[in-house]
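Translate structure to sequence.
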């Protein structure tokens, strides 16, 4: 084996149909100057085998769509991924995905292709997005050889940005749900958590418009400025 071959990244073993679907995935678009209401947003939540960014795996993906100022219940996504030899952490007691559910799950490549076709060119939203983004990027690279470049905004940052009087900047999703008295049913399953995050985001979009933030690009810019101020050294 040559040194060049040894250094090359191993490509996932996709069949011809999967490779064709991969090549036909839509390219992401940058957040633009259309209205927040007209933008199609995909709100995603993952359940994983644990919290280790480099070792644990995505077990399930849940997503809902916000479009035209509302959750579009005709556009829902949920997949459990089949994982062999996955060691489950105590988090299985929370999300309820045991060995039998994982064994009956979808082929990871198929599930991830389904998800990216569902996303299309839309931006993504998640609560504590850096974790979901990292885990999703890893899964897509490992199973498809695909590099995720979609805009990915963190609702956990957007909430305190737009609601500074709430005084719960390090809050979890449940804290914000309680703050706004949202009536949420099931929790700690990927699709249910995505829906809860979407319901919160609808309130935050309304708050954004009240603060003269009218476009996805403006929201992204305001969020970037807020994060820079938050992490700036104080003298």
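Result:
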């Amino acid at each position: 084996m040559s040194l060049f071959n040894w250094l090359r990244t191993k490509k996932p073993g996709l069949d011809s149909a999967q490779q064709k679907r991969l090549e036909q995935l839509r390219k992401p678009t940058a957040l633009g100057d259309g209205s927040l209401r007209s933008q199609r947003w995909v709100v995603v939540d993952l359940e994983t085998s644990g919290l280790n960014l480099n070792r644990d795996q995505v077990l399930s993906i849940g997503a809902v769509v916000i479009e035209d100022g509302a959750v579009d219940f005709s556009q829902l996504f949920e997949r459990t991924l089949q994982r062999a030899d996955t060691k489950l952490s105590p988090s299985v007691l929370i999300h309820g995905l045991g060995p039998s559910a994982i064994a009956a799950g979808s082929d990871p490549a198929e599930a991830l292709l389904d998800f990216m076709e569902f996303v299309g060119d839309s931006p993504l939203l998640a609560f504590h997005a850096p974790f979901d983004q990292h885990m999703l990027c890893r899964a897509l690279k490992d199973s498809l050889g695909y590099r995720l470049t979609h805009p990915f905004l963190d609702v956990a940052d957007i909430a305190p940005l737009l609601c500074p009087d709430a005084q719960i900047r390090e809050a979890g999703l449940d804290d914000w749900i309680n703050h706004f008295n949202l009536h949420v049913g099931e929790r700690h399953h990927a699709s249910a958590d995505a829906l809860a995050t979407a319901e919160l985001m609808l309130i935050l979009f309304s708050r954004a418009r009240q603060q003269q933030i009218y476009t996805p690009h403006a929201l992204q810019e305001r969020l970037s400025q807020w994060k820079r101020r938050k992490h700036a050294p104080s003298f």
